[in-house]
Amino acid sequence: MTMITTERPAPNLFELRSKLLHITYSSSGIDGKAHLTYQDKHQTLSFRGDEVRALETEIGTLVSVYIVRSIDRGSTTFSVLVPTINLDATGVAHISTRGITTIHRFSMIPAFNSGQTETYSTVVLDGTARAVAF
Questions:
Q1: What is the pLDDT of residues 85-133, one digit of tens each?
Q2: pTM over 0.85, yes/no
Q3: Domain ranges in the chain?
Q4: Which CATH architecture group holds 13-130?
Q5: Exposed, middle or buried: residue 78 (CB in 10 Å: 0-12, 13-18, 19+)?
Q6: Is the CB of residue 87 less than 8 Å from the CB of residue 95?
Q7: What is the spatial distance between Cα 60 and Cα 99, in angstroms, rounded to a whole number?
Q8: Contact (Cβ atoms closer than 8 angstroms) between residue 72 and residue 59
Q9: Contact (Cβ atoms closer than 8 angstroms) between residue 63 and residue 78
């Protein structure tokens, strides 16, 4: 008995949103680099290449970008947890995941740097994952 397996491509384009947030993440764009667009009610930020950090973990791929940077007050990152997805024949899957905004507290005054230095807020993101040829 011969088994025929059809290898389906992995998704590389994720379009996710909540009421106040819209995220588009491509693990590899036309230039071969990762791209992420972050849009909230105040700003639209675009990141590519080394500005987009992806870390494979047991619970999915954690994709992070800096949305606020400061050398003397700390910074803010946004991360999205991208789950493992097996696409069907349509090449599109509906997904639900989490976005995490992290405020990294820092002070130039060492005495103010004690205790917890990160605080988190999470948001449910729903959308699609698809395989796209760039």
A1: 999 989 999 999 999 999 988 766 676 677 888 899 999 999 999 999 8
A2: yes
A3: 13-130
A4: Beta Barrel (2.40)
A5: buried
A6: no
A7: 13
A8: no
A9: no
